Each structure stands twice: as structure tokens, then as C-alpha cells.
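RETRY 2/3 - previous attempt timed out on the joint model. Re-submitting the same 602-residue input unchanged.
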Amino acid sequence: MATEVQEEFAAVSEKDALFGTIPVNRGDRVWGFFDFSWVMIGLAIATWAFLIGGDVVYFLGLRAGIAAMVVGNAIGVGVVVVSVLGDTKYGLEHFSMVRAVFGRHGIKPLIYIVNFLVCIGWSGILAVMFGRASVNIVNQLAGTSYDGDHFLVALFGLAALFSAWLVVVKGPVALKWFNRIAAPGLSVVIVVMLFFLFRDNSWSDFTAIEPLEPFGDPLLDFVMVVEFSIAGGLSWWPAQGNLSRLATTQRSAMWATVVGLFVVTLIAQTVGLMAALRYEDSDPTNWMIPLTGAGFGILILIWIGFANITTMSVQAYQVCVAMRQESVKWLSGMSWPLLVAIFLGLSALLLIRPSAIYDNFFQFLYWISLVYAPIIGIVIVDYFFLRGQKLDLWAIFSHRPGSPYDYWRGWNIAAYIALAAGVGVYLLLLNPVSLWYSAPFPYMTASVPSLLTGAIVYLVLTQVWVKRVGKGGYAG
Amino acid sequence: MRSATFGGCSDRGDAGSTDARTATGARSCRRRPDDDVCGAVRLAQRWRWRRWNRRATALGDRKGERSQMSEHSTGPDIDPVLKARLIEITDPTYSDPARKDFTGVDWLAFIGFFVVCAVGFIVWGY
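RETRY 2/3 succeeded.
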């Protein structure tokens, strides 16, 4: 009987860890370096990578474009990797770890507003892209000329969301196997595309092609690309946190992320840029078939659609796990398939008018960076400089007033002041709606000063205020 | 987390108790109290809840202490499944390769890689 109880208990613990916010233990960690690399590669090679690469064509040519993407991704991915090391170390669901910074109630706006909207936006964009790729296949096969807002786009998008639901309800093990199939195939896709790109063109042909609509100031054009490359990297922050907790070591999590989200993403973005330069069109769904011919083009579009499902699944998994905070009982008790269905169902609303989100992709990226950059700065300074990489796991999950991470009735006011300061600095440098920028922007980007502002303000406030009033459980 | 997964019933004995071992109270049920199915589920959950609590408490007794972790939160406000997991992973004898922080060489390799890439590509491309 005792053994039965232990087994049942262990099974429930594992289930709650993989589908909820219970910290994972050594046995729950399912991804070594190899598997985690494939997960990251699957995340990296989706249509969004080709789209970001393709959009560089408006500002920069090939060489400068690659350089700007490298710089932007190095910053974006670099800070994201560092900021989620605590998730790997303690096996924590990402927003559970961030609770130590923002407080048990303070974390809720980040989960239920910021992260939720960001993930709905991403899933919607990927579903629209899947739909548009599918409609291009239909146009090719049936000789039709349906546009990007045709109802078939929404229909195929819904099919993509449903496929993502099928994957996510099975949890991270299904994600692992899905990626083991999708990611190697996508690597082949990139090689095939490179082959076709270089079949009729040389490297010097590509470098000779001018960008489509540059500002005319080389530095400004360069930094514009750096900025949205940073934003692309930062946008994976919550997903990265929730995925890396399943990695076996911090080192494997870091290098697998570097391989996937940095190296492979850059390759995919470069391929996207080259194709966009060649066809003077930033939309990857439009140049796949002209690039490789009907046969290969259709196959590639199908496989890329498959990869989009991978990315949607990762997003849906992380956001649904985050929403199952144990302090929100009606969500933590909701069945996993239903929770995933609700999230993906809301993403489907964006399919009502596909171009609304698709054509505002850049604003979407800048909005993400506006909020995530200062938060990441705050988390890094808290975990590394204020806590010395040590977290009180009991306090993270405590609901008692006066517990170390309770701060002020569950809210860390200092963190929100720092966040507001970081957002303010970003807005002073770049407006994500109008894309207006101030004079210092070309020299410093908007995300980096915003991140640093959030970090410094939080560090100062904690030292002179939070620690002195005995909040936050900081040593000394 | 653990509770309220069956038919809209919730049976968390978490609030208002000072002893986790006695935290078994049926909290709420969206169905009518005389609903047989709901009642059966609630009974089953209560039984499981007791066992988990005993198991969690037994684990805690055996491990003895919470190492360097806070004592604020060892009370009844934590779900027993979560509590058992926390007892396990905060035990001083718990071993997990993921707990090993980066060494200086790791940081050097990580930061150096990105810096070299960024500077190298700026020189090459800009």
C-alpha cells in the first residue's frame, strides 16, 4: 500500500511539474544538450525567422544586414539566456522565479496581461503565416489568386492552431519528439534554399543589391535592424525560461540556446534576407515557390508550416504553464487540454482579419521589447547581484503575509518603479506606434538603455529602500 | 496544481488550518451538495488529500529540516504535492547537476563568444 501511494504521489508530482508550476526535479528534466538543441532549432527555424530576415531588406543590404542581425541577436539572446539561468538551476516555472522579484501578486499582470497578449499575438501571427503559405500552395496548384485576407487563410490558420493544440496537450515529451522530426527537416530546408539561391546568383550578386527603402543614414538603418533583432530575441524570454527548466544542466541550456536561437536563427534570417533581396519582397510565403519552383516550393512551404506549428506549440505550452500559478485556483485546477484550447482559441480571433496583425509585425515586436527589456534587466540584477544566484524556494510559493517575497501585500513596488523607468526611457528613444525616434537612438538603440535603466533603478531602490525596510528576503 | 480537477469540485484543505495533517476540509463544490457524483469525487479527493499530506509530512519528518530555506512558508498554505517536492529539492542531500552555477570559464566563453561575433561582424559588414 505504501508503495502504491508513493508511486501515485510521484506520478502526480511529475504531472504537476510538467504541466503546472511545481518545480521540476532531476528526474523530470527531459532535455540534454542534444534534445534541447533540437527544441531550440525548431523554435528558431520558423517563418518568423525568414520574415524578420526578409524585413531587413527595407533598410540594409546583405553584409550590413547580417552584421546588424548578429549584433541584435547577440544582445537579445544573450540577456535572455542569462536571465533564465535560475529557472534551470531550480527547475522553476519561469514566472514562479520572477515572483521573487515582483511579488506573488505583482507577477500577475506580467502573466495574465503582458505574457498572455504577447503569446496570443505570436500564435496569431504564426497561424496567419501558416494560412498564407497554405493559400499560396492552393494558388499554385489550382491556378487561383486568393489574397492574404481570403477566408482560406483563416481556415488554414485554424487548422494550424488545432494541430498545435494536439501537440501541446501531450506536454513537453510530445514537443521533444515533434522537434526531433521538424528541426532536422528544417535544417534541410535551409540547405535547399541556399542551394537554389546560389544556383543562379553569386555572393557578389547579392551584396550588390541595394536595400528597398533605407532612411539614407547608414547608422540609423543599421540600428533600426539591430533594434528589431534585439526585440526578436527578447520576445522568447518567457518561452525560454519555461523550456530551459527542463534542461539537465545550466551549461547545456545555455549552449543549446546559443546554437538554436542565435546561430540557426541567424542562418534562417540570412536566408530570408537573401531571398528578399533577390525577389524584392519581404514576405517569405511569396518567394518560396518562385525561388525553388513549384515542386520544391510547395514541399518547403508545407515543412515551414509544420515548423510554425512547433513554435506555436512552444508558445502555448509556456503560457499555459505560466497561467497555472497555484495561487489562481480556478486556472490551476482547469484541465490542461481545456486551458490550451482557450488560449489557442483566443489566438484564432486574430484570424478574423489576418492582415491586421501581420502587417503590423514590427510594431508588435517593438511593443514586446518595450515591456520585456526593463523586466529582464530587473530580473538579472536581482538574481545575480542582489541574491547571488540563490533563491528561497519555500518563500517563492508562500502565500503568507510577511514571507520574504511578499514585499508589500504581494507587490514589489520597487520593481514596478524600475519597470516604469525602463519603459519611460524606451519611449523617450523610440515610439513603438509611430516609429518616431529621438536623436540618441541611433547611437544606443532603445532596448539596451531601457534594460540598463530598469536594472540600475531596481538595484538602487533595493539597496536604499527595500533592504532597509526588511522586504524581499535579501541577505544582510 | 493538484485539486479541483474533477467535475468542477474543489477540495483543498489549505486555508484556515494550522496543521497540514488535518487539512482535509471540503472547501466548495459547484454542484449541489446532494449530487452523488460530486460527493463521491469529493470523498475520493479528500482521501487522496489525506494520503498526500501524510506522505508530505512523513517526508518532511524524515528529512528533518529545510536546509537554508525560509521557515516562513512551511505552513499549511502550500499544496501537499508542491510541499513534498519542495522538501525533496531543498534537502541538503538532494543532488542535481543543474544546480551547478557557471564557472568563470563558462562566463568567459559565453560573453566572449557574443562579443567576438558582434565585433567581428560589425568590422566585416558595417
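Chain A touches chain B through 63 residues (CB under 8 Å). Closing ticket.
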